[in-house]
């Protein structure tokens, strides 16, 4: 069976070029070493880590010294919030953040902080004026994501950064789903902290990076041997970091060499064909600026999870965006925050393309989707009723 992977926002497959760059760092006969060792092996590992740091810094237009390697986006988000905010302070964030930010905020609340979660409009965007209005005397942190993982909607982070700068408040942005998909310049963003994750960038799972400006007074959350200039103890994941450096280089290239533009064209074709040929479908957040690789589409009268399974049986991997906790399927908190009904949120699927995507993949999805959808709708009493009444 043909298989098509359109779930890059969950994990983007490692690129062969990236894997080849990291492979020698597993073998003693090649480039293995602990970057803290002073001998030959340590020196070669250290040099590779520093080269990767330089590459990631170029992706953000920052100094290499401001990059801290982490285990991924979750750690970067935890570091930014728990490492900066102190008990009694006030944090402004949003209702559509990833659980890594939302649950870090929850933890801060338990530690005596006050948290304001700002709403989004129907397109999934935060209003910068709401950020300004939410500022208080004790506000020390604003954390707003750059691009949403479910819809791809880009937030007005430059404006929010400006507000934070004027108010002398830290600004953190979770750029996990934005890195490599839109340009990032930490100076233009006026951000003090920014987190990314390797596996959304075609590097391996379990590695990431955070930008931490030198003005951010970070109290590390990992205590140990003082690696990463004391900001993140723990032996560096040398192969992962090397891979992230390579992936950052490829991501930077992809912003200008037409790769991202190609993904946008395929994404748009997918959206257009689905919405024009399949009734009761539509794009969530369509009118907002979005990253090129992501689309979130509702298919009224079906359960998104059932459609995910039906497509999986045809070899197509997508995501329903529904969070499964304690056995109960909850509708997406992002889509409901946009004002969508629970039913429509439950009927929505995320398709996310990557550098491995080919035009034939889109053709294949478009060839199998109508039948999968029709079968499910034929089983839906609500759909039958609506067809009879219309
Ligand atoms: N932030 C966003 C927006 C994400 O989409 C994800 C992963 O899905 C994370 C944070 C967490 O990243 P990681 O899986 O590297 O911990």
The whole-angstrom Rg is 22 Å
CATH architecture verdict of the largest domain: 3-Layer(aba) Sandwich
- List cofactors, ions and other ligands: pyridoxal-5'-phosphate
Strands of the widest sheet, in order across it, are 2-8-7-6-5-3-4
Describe the structure concisely.
It is built from 14 helices and 14 strands.
Key terms for this structure?
single chain, 390 residues, alpha/beta, Aspartate Aminotransferase, domain 1, Aspartate Aminotransferase, domain 2, seven-stranded mixed sheet, 14 helices, globular, binds pyridoxal-5'-phosphate
Topology of helices and strands:
Layout: E1 4-5, H1 16-22, H2 40-60, E2 67-70, H3 73-82, E3 90-94, H4 99-110, E4 114-118, H5 128-134, E5 139-143, H6 157-167, E6 170-174, H7 186-189, E7 193-197, E8 208-212, H8 238-254, H9 259-277, E9 281-283, E10 294-299, H10 304-313, E11 316-317, E12 323-325, E13 328-330, H11 333-337, H12 342-346, E14 348-352, H13 359-378, H14 381-389
Parallel strand pairs: 1-11, 3-4, 3-5, 5-6, 6-7
Antiparallel strand pairs: 2-8, 7-8, 9-10, 10-14, 12-13
Helix pairs in contact: 1-8, 2-8, 3-4, 9-13, 10-13
The structure holds pyridoxal-5'-phosphate.
């Amino acid at each position: 069976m043909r298989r098509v992977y359109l779930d890059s926002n969950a994990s983007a497959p490692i690129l062969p070029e990236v894997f080849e760059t990291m492979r020698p760092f597993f073998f003693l006969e090649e480039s293995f070493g602990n970057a803290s060792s002073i001998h030959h092996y340590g020196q070669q590992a250290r040099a590779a880590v520093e080269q990767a740091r330089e590459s990631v810094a170029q992706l953000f237009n920052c100094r290499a010294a401001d990059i801290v390697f982490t285990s991924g986006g979750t750690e970067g988000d935890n570091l930014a919030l728990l490492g900066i905010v102190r008990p009694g302070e006030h944090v402004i964030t949003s209702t559509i953040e990833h659980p890594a930010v939302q649950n870090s905020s929850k933890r801060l609340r338990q530690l005596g902080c006050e948290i304001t979660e700002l709403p989004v409009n129907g397109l999934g965007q935060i209003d910068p004026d709401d950020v300004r209005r939410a500022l208080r005397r004790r506000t020390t942190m604003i954390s707003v994501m750059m691009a949403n993982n479910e819809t791809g909607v880009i937030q007005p982070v430059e404006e929010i950064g400006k507000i934070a700068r004027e108010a002398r408040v830290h600004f953190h942005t979770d750029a996990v789903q934005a890195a490599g998909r839109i340009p990032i310049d930490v100076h233009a963003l006026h951000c003090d902290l920014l987190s990314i994750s390797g596996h959304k960038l075609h590097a391996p799972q379990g590695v990431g990076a955070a930008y931490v400006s030198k003005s951010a007074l970070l109290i590390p959350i990992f205590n140990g041997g003082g690696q990463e200039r004391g900001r993140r103890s723990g032996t560096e994941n040398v192969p992962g970091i090397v891979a992230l450096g390579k992936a950052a280089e490829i991501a930077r290239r992809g912003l200008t060499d037409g790769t991202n533009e190609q993904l946008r064209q395929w994404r748009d074709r997918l959206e257009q064909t689905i919405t024009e040929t399949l009734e009761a479908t539509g794009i969530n957040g369509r009118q907002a600026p979005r990253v090129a690789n992501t689309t979130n589409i509702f298919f009224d009268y079906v359960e998104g999870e059932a459609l995910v399974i039906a497509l999986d049986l045809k070899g197509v991997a997508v995501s329903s965006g529904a969070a499964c906790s304690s056995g109960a399927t909850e509708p997406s908190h992002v889509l409901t925050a946009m004002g969508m009904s629970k039913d429509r949120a439950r009927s929505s699927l995320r398709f996310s393309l990557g550098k491995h995507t080919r035009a034939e993949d889109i053709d294949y999805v478009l060839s199998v989707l109508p039948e999968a959808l029709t079968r499910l709708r034929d089983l839906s009493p609500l759909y039958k009723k609506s067809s009879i009444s219309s």
